[in-house]
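Quick one - inputs below.
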Amino acid sequence: MTLSWTDAIAMEPYADLGSYQEPAGFDVDFFSPDQKSSFSWSDMKDSGLLDKDMGYNFLNQYSNPIKGIAAGSGSGSGSMLDSAENEDGGIEKITDGLYLYNPGKFAANYAAGMQGGGGASAGKPSTGDKLKGAAIGAISGFAKGGPVGAGIGALTGFLCDMRFKTDVSPLETTDVNDDLAKMAFFVKGLRECA
Amino acid sequence: MSALEKLKQLEPIQFRYKEEIDPTQPLRAGFSAQQVQKVIPEAVHEVNGVLMLDLNVLKNYLRMAREELLAESSRE
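Output:
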């Protein structure tokens, strides 16, 4: 049977279009199904696809990561906790005689070191102390993340301006083993190995 | 120029701060901000007319250099 527009308009309002048939699958009683899912969590766990301790507690995923992620990380054990520890900094041996300083703690160390700094008001306009005051003000302002708008990230500023230094010579030794000194000795090692 | 090459161009120095900056004047190790500025300008900020070394930038250079060194050592 084919219908045209004119047929549709002229058609009886209750035309017989045949008997209604339920679509397949609609005969299931959803409230008391006679079939159960073939999926089994215990089978899934026994298959080894899931970490047996997964979900044991929240922190477990950090100290004992899901196997797939750990295998794909390509560095260390793959634990998120391990990578966080690496961010903390330390000395890492690259080759014999060449060690790399990982400056992960620079920001915190510097922030602590800057606590003794004076405020911007310490910058006196008198001739002798002008530069010193500017330095102290700069450090203070820098430590507060102000002048360069660098925020918290700007905590790692070192006063390396040559105008504040005396007895300058190529690096041989130091009395202060701070982060800057470690970096300087590392660069010295790089230059000597080159 | 690679991060490793840039780091090698830095000239580590030993120095003392002038007495008005640090009265105890211990011998320190570090860099000259003026010299670093020539090699890695983004690592030096001028704040109130004073040159400050931004260790965040140098830290990133160290990390990049570390990766280059590890890549070199893995090739050998």
